[in-house]
Design goal:
heterodimer; A: alpha/beta; 4-stranded antiparallel sheet; globular; B: 2 domains; 16 helices; 77% helix
């Protein structure tokens, strides 16, 4: 078996916000992504999925200071302990990010060509003519019509869908091994969403790009992500092959998420069940299962003891005291988390 | 509004009705420039009329004030005719404008010299001083603002912030006096006052330029640095800056190539206003250092009730302000391409 492009081991991230709060955002995250594979990370707002991407990238909002422990291995190289210079080198060329909102993630006063080619021009000077030509090629690769003209344009002259293609072109420019896509279609029209996701799939296939696709919409991952990791309260509460997780969820939270997905085949005017309650307060230390206060199956033990890892199937695990599926193999509690990387 | 505005509308019209062709942006720009020119002309007309109304608005007769209490009525009438005070203000303004367009701004009452010659001598001096002051201000403000914004709350930022407030509280002429005391009296390295034209002796010219330029520039530097720092901090919090960082862009490039431009609109405005204002001359600083610029000319003319000179200075300053405003407006469009597409 080939070694994964990205391997995250027992990652804990703590954020120090400008207003002086300390948030323990990520708890013991384990995951791995092979070349050409897409891992879907799903969870609601505040579940820590964006912080996960930012920690892997090592770029946080400027006012926020982050400390991370554990390991983030990119092709075996630990990014958390790498020298700053080396990390900067890998940005864009080793790992790249597609941002959520293409309206705010492009500089309004810089031409498209100059932004798309940033990963390249940061390392090597490029003449204007060369930048325009390279940008046009990169834009053509993400199906931007009339790429030579768009390369000269400013972001405000482009539609939202086109801008997100520009964002993808900019991410792909440095030929990264790993692509972090943080809700890449949330800000887009539904009709545009599909084409953008298809585009990401295509490049994943042709370039063997490992992709971490973050979304709050679990339905978007069908047929795209081979595996899913469900995040809640800064933890991966369930992970496994997409079919297994969506057809037979073991964690009550995953089940609740799936119930909230609208279905074309269901009865009309059905009220979609929302997941009751609100996500946990990250500034308080977490005891027991983070989902316990909102869980309909919760019992006393859930709020006092950390849930054991339950093996629901081949490569399918859930951290829950009272999972919805029957366990397979040896007793779940004996499997240590470290061996059970996603 | 004014007849001058009408051609602007007709010029802009085809740009709006035709399909986007290669010519459309050119027509749009032309229409915009024409519109600006129309508004500028209206402003200048208003300023001219007001300037020419000045002697009329003075209490008592300016002729009496000039000739003294012993003047005979005949002398007063003759003097008023010479000033053009016997006419209606609008007639006077019309005549003044007509003469101005022929390059005649009248003659100084005190020296008898042509006002145009006087201005031609002094405008370059004031402009040179202004440019030097801006270089001082920007040269100081840019690095301080960039560094402060990159590390807000850091040592440089805290010192700069405290310094800027003290600086802003000190009036320019006090700063000038301190500089004179330090450089001219104590260290004896620079002349305290006076002027040597650049064409006569470039080195002496620069030596005379240093102190007044520092006095004007240092005060402005504080304003520039505060403004730019605030804007930069906002810009650096934008997602697109994080996006550029995530593509591996280094700090220096990020600040200079990505953050500075979207942060510089207020600074462009400040410099633009400064250009216009400086033509009227920084009266205090020019007087303090005895720089023969427009400011000292205005000060002497006002004190001596030399109306033709005062009027000319007022109108020339207005021309400067209007020209600077138009220039700033056009510069906005280059700095931020969104503005060009938003308006019209």
């Amino acid at each position: 078996m080939t070694s994964p492009v990205l391997e995250v081991r027992s990652l804990d991230t703590t954020l120090h916000t400008p207003d002086g709060r300390t948030l323990h955002v990520l708890h013991g995250i384990d995951l791995s992504i092979d070349a050409g594979e897409c891992l879907g990370v799903v969870g609601e707002s505040g579940s820590g999925k964006s912080v996960l991407a930012r920690t892997v990238l090592g770029v946080h909002p400027r006012a926020t200071r982050a400390t991370a422990t554990g390991q983030v291995l990119l092709n075996g190289e630990d990014l958390l302990t790498a020298a700053p210079r080396r990390r900067a080198e890998l940005l864009g060329t080793g790992v790249a990010m597609v941002h959520q909102d293409p309206m705010t993630s492009l500089n309004p006063v810089v031409r498209i060509a100059d932004q798309v080619t940033e990963s390249l021009t940061n390392r090597r000077r490029m003449r204007r003519r060369e930048r325009l030509r390279t940008a046009a090629e990169l834009l053509a690769a993400v199906d931007v019509p009339d790429p030579a003209r768009r390369a000269r344009a400013y972001p405000h002259e482009l539609s939202g869908g086109l801008r997100q293609r520009v964002g993808i072109a900019a991410a792909l420019a440095g030929s990264p091994a790993l692509l972090l896509a943080d809700e890449p279609t949330t800000a887009l029209d539904v009709t545009v969403q599909r084409t953008v996701l298809d585009l990401l799939d295509r490049h994943r296939g042709t370039r063997g790009l490992a992709t971490l696709l973050i979304t709050h919409d679990i339905g978007l991952l069908y047929g795209r992500a081979r595996r899913i990791a469900v995040m809640y309260g800064g933890r991966i509460v369930e992970t496994g092959p997409t079919e297994a997780v969506t057809e037979a969820p073991a964690h009550p939270y995953t089940a609740a998420l799936l119930r909230s997905v609208p279905r074309v085949t269901g009865p009309l005017r059905r009220v979609l069940p929302a997941v009751a309650g609100s996500p946990p307060d990250l500034s308080r230390p977490a005891v027991g299962c983070p989902f316990a206060p909102r869980c309909e199956r919760a019992e006393a033990v859930c709020s006092t003891e950390a849930p054991p890892l339950h093996r629901a199937g081949d490569g399918h695990t859930a951290a829950c005291h009272f999972p919805l599926t029957l366990p397979i193999g040896p007793a779940s509690a004996s499997v240590s988390k470290a061996q059970e990387t996603v | 509004m004014t007849p001058a505005h009408a051609p602007a509308r007709t010029a802009a019209a085809p740009a709006r009705t035709t399909a986007p062709t290669a010519l459309a942006p050119v027509l749009r720009t032309a229409g915009r420039v024409a519109g600006r020119a129309g508004r500028a002309a209206a402003v200048l007309l208003l300023v001219t009329v007001s300037a020419l109304a000045l002697p009329h608005l003075m209490p008592g007769s300016p002729a009496l004030a000039a000739l003294g209490p012993t003047a005979t009525p005949e002398q007063v009438t003759a003097y008023e005719a010479k000033l053009g005070l016997d006419d209606n203000v609008l007639v006077a303004a019309w005549r003044w404008l007509g003469d101005a367009l022929h390059g005649d701004l009248g003659h100084s009452l005190s020296t008898g010299a042509a006002v145009t010659t006087e201005l031609a001598d002094r405008i370059p001096v004031t402009l040179e001083l202004f440019v030097a002051a801006q270089l001082v201000a920007l040269g100081l403000a840019l690095p301080v603002a960039l560094y402060s914004a990159w590390r807000p709350g850091g040592a440089v930022d805290r010192i700069a912030t405290a310094g800027a407030f003290v600086w802003l509280a000190v009036p320019g002429f006090v700063l000038g006096l301190v500089l004179i005391w330090l450089a001219a009296v104590q260290l004896r390295i620079l002349p305290a006052t006076g002027w040597t034209p650049f064409t006569e002796d470039p080195f002496e010219n620069l030596r005379h330029l240093v102190l007044p330029a520092l006095t004007l520039g240092l005060t402005e530097a504080a304003v520039f640095a505060r403004t730019l720092r605030g804007q930069l901090i906002d810009t650096l919090d934008q997602t697109y800056v994080a996006a550029a960082r995530s593509r591996g862009m280094g700090t220096v490039r990020l600040l200079l190539r990505r953050a500075l431009r979207p942060s510089s609109l207020p600074l462009v405005t400040l410099v633009g206003i400064g250009i216009g204002m400086s033509l009227g001359g920084s009266v205090l600083v020019e007087s303090l250092f005895a720089v023969p610029g427009v400011g000292t000319l205005a000060a002497t003319a006002i004190a001596g009730r030399d109306f033709p000179v005062v009027q000319a200075v007022v109108v020339v300053s207005a021309v400067g302000v209007v020209a600077a405003t138009v220039a700033v407006d056009l510069l906005y469009r280059t700095v931020d391409p969104r503005i060009a597409d938003e308006r019209r």
